[in-house]
Amino acid sequence: METAAPATGMVSRLEDIAADAPASGLTLGELTEKLGEQAFGVVLFVLAVPVCMPFLYGIPQIVALPMLAISAQMALGRDALWLPDRLARRRLSKADLVKTAHGARKWFGWIEAFAAPRLAFLSGPMAHRSAGALFCVFCLSILVPLPLTNTTPGIALALAALGLINRDGLLVLGGAILGTVWIVILYGGLIILGPAFIDLVINGLRRILDEGLWAIALVAVAGLAALAGLVIWRRRQARPEP
User: Fold this and answer.
1) Are 115 and 9 in contact (CB under 8 A)?
2) Which residues contact 53 (CB under 8 A, 6 or more apart)?
3) 45-50, long-range: CB within 8 Å, 24+ apart, which pairs?
4) Closest by alpha carbon to 229, among 109, 110, 103, 101?
5) Considering its fold, how many domains does the chain have in total?
6) Mode of pairing for the β-strands spanning 26-27 and 91-92
7) Residue 83 covered by a domain
8) How many C-beta atoms lie closer than 10 Å to residue 81's C-beta?
9) How confident is the model at residue 1, as a pLDDT?
10) 59-113 pLDDT tens trace
11) pLDDT over threshold 80, residue 205
């Protein structure tokens, strides 16, 4: 059993693993063991991204099944992500590991600019199990074939996954609160108002989109510009001194 990984971000951890890997490389099973609980966050984040898309039916329900299996592993207290045997035996060469770490630094290194190890009590074994159980509830909500059941839980899972990746308890807590509040509101509204609640929320969202489209577009452009600026800044910071 691998010892717990040090409290570093995912990208830095991948770089360390690639640098220390033997010449023969590592199998995917060995890689997930070395990543520890960060492996849960990596896979959950990748799967949660398409679930965040609003009014996208079918795909979120399909993707929610493997997310539910991963969340259940967390709830059961597994230290490392379990993979099917055939997948776990696949080997990555040292060159592939170095290339993967370099690509992760290039495209996702900016995440470490705002995500950092904090609120360590939220990354302990009991907190890890509790988060897994809560994620199972989010995934079950996504599996329900009704409007509005996937987008907010998907965003909550993606946010919490970033927290797992970077051992950032604040992001995990934020995702947990967002998903829980939304599920309470959604299913509470369904119990009280019935199907009329779904129509009420959808019509409200459409009205916001119709009347506030320019404002939303402006905020989106500003957000993308800020993100691009952050990425450029991070790349410049990563360049070696001449």
Assistant:
1) yes
2) 59, 60, 151, 154
3) 45/158, 45/161, 45/162, 45/165, 48/154, 48/155, 48/157, 48/158, 48/161, 49/154, 49/158, 50/154
4) 110
5) 1
6) antiparallel
7) yes
8) 24
9) 41
10) 788 888 888 988 999 898 887 788 888 878 888 888 888 887 787 777 666 666 6
11) no
**Alpha carbon distances (Å) from 35 to 24, 138, 148:** 18, 24, 33
Residue 76 counted as domain residue: yes
- Look up residue 84 and give its two tokens: 């099917």
128 contacts: CB under 8 Å, gap ≥ 6: 37, 74, 77
Q: Is residue 20 part of a domain?
A: yes
* φ and ψ at residue 26, rounded to 5 degrees: -135, 150
Q: Which domain holds residue 49?
A: 10-194
92 φ, ψ (degrees, to nearest 5): -105, 130
Neighbours of 118 (CB within 10 A): 15
In angstroms, the CA 208 to CA 215 distance is 10
107-147: per-residue pLDDT in tens? 666 666 667 777 777 766 788 888 899 999 989 888 877 66
What's the DSSP call for residue 121? G
Query: Token pair 């909550």 is at which residue?
Result: 156
The model carries a pTM of 0.67
Scanning the structure block, which residue is given the tokens 């060159």?
A: 95
Residue 235 lies in a domain: no
E strand or H helix that includes residue 37 = none
pLDDT above 70 as % of the chain: 71
